[in-house]
Amino acid sequence: MNLDFDLTPEQVQTRETVKRFAQKEIAPHVLEYNREGCLPLDIVAKMKEMGLIGGVIPPEYGGAGIDHVSWVISIEEISRVCSSLAVVVGGPSSLIGQGILRFGTEQQKQKYLATMARGESMGAAGITEPNTGTDVANIQTTAVRKGDEYILNGSKMFITNGGICDWAIVFATMDKSLRHKGITAFIIERGMPGFSSRSIAGKLAWQPLDLGELIFEDCRVPRENLVGEEMRGFKIVMSCLDMGRLFVAARALGLAQGCLDASLNYSKERTVFGQPIASYQLIQKMIADMAVGVEMGRLLLYQVARLRDKGAQRTTKYSSMAKLFNTELAMKAATDAVQIHGAYGFTSEYHVERYFREAKGLQIVEGTTQIHTILQAAYALGLRSDD
Ligand SMILES: Cc1cc2nc3c(=O)[nH]c(=O)nc-3n(C[C@H](O)[C@H](O)[C@H](O)COP(=O)(O)OP(=O)(O)OC[C@H]3O[C@@H](n4cnc5c(N)ncnc54)[C@H](O)[C@@H]3O)c2cc1C
């Protein structure tokens, strides 16, 4: 008997369909395209056909309109095989699209969100800067209103899709002295005067994905590209992050499950001192930790997704908790999976070498392990509340 998580028949079907797709269409090619550092556009096209890009975005805005539980299951199953391609499923509904979905105008939703959800445009989200990441309120990129335009100056660093995106939601300050209260959200588009970007070369993992810098030099943004209201952008950042952290939690859970899958197979096949290594208790301890961890991580993640399906829009505490738990789980699972594989696990012929590098990235993106630990302590001590 398995924990069934009270999934609906549709959610069970989603898992089966996405799992089969990942095994059949992604797994045979994943080592090769990761080694080459290319996004497999033919696979992305199939994901688009399956509606995987549209996620929770409603059909009227080009999305698939699936529930949040189905969405995290889809991310989990893709990430179990390739956490780079999981970004194609998770990004549009979360960090990139959530702000426009909740706070954008009808025109912005049709022009940017809907085209991204249909796989026709590539978006990005720019919060981090060269001199500020964790301390979001310290954003230094400035926005000044001038007639019917805003003039942006500054840059955004380490932005997924940054070097190749068609547009991005970016956050700038209209008054640095107000810290988070001065933050305002805008959509910038390639071709706007004063906007340029570059891809960042050389990184630990996720070679198929672009990581870039967005540069604003007297960048002129029309007033219609303001998202929400002036000086109300911090709320938009947080709503993007609440979903973004859920996405990263699902991505991490899938990666941890991938580590368990690989470790089970390898430990039964590899013989040392005349016995499969799975028979040794020190190996079993690592496998038991992974098996318990993925069940716990899944319980937490699905409950947070369910909260959102019940209508909760602010899930900061539990999105952070799920992100923290699952990314720490992924790092430990990947470390142990490499250990179980011995020298083979050290080579790029085996998936666990890649999982190990990717797990480190998961501990950094959408808030580091440290900031989520600090947040959880603050909630526990009653210093912070979502109410
Ligand atoms: C692959 C990748 C993709 C990314 N994609 C995006 C994206 O699409 N959009 C975007 O906006 N950003 C993106 N980022 C940036 C990411 O969100 C930031 O890297 C992250 O928020 C941390 O910021 P930082 O790197 O500036 O670290 P810093 O804030 O400089 O922190 C450095 C170290 O200090 C620690 N630290 C900070 N404050 C404290 C404290 N109070 N107590 C203890 N320790 C502390 C941190 O945990 C960290 O270990 C991406 C990053 C990566 C690696």
From TrEMBL:
Domain named Acyl-CoA dehydrogenase/oxidase C-terminal: residues: 232-375
Keywords associated with the record: FAD, Flavoprotein, Oxidoreductase
Keyword Flavoprotein (UniProt): yes
Annotated family: Belongs to the acyl-CoA dehydrogenase family.
Record organism: Candidatus Abyssobacteria bacterium SURF_17
Taxonomic lineage from the root: Bacteria, Pseudomonadati, Candidatus Hydrogenedentota, Candidatus Abyssobacteria
Protein name (record): Cyclohex-1-ene-1-carbonyl-CoA dehydrogenase
UniProt entry tagged with the keyword Nucleotide-binding: no
UniProt xrefs under Pfam families: Acyl-CoA_dh_1 (PF00441), Acyl-CoA_dh_M (PF02770), Acyl-CoA_dh_N (PF02771)
Cofactor annotation: FAD
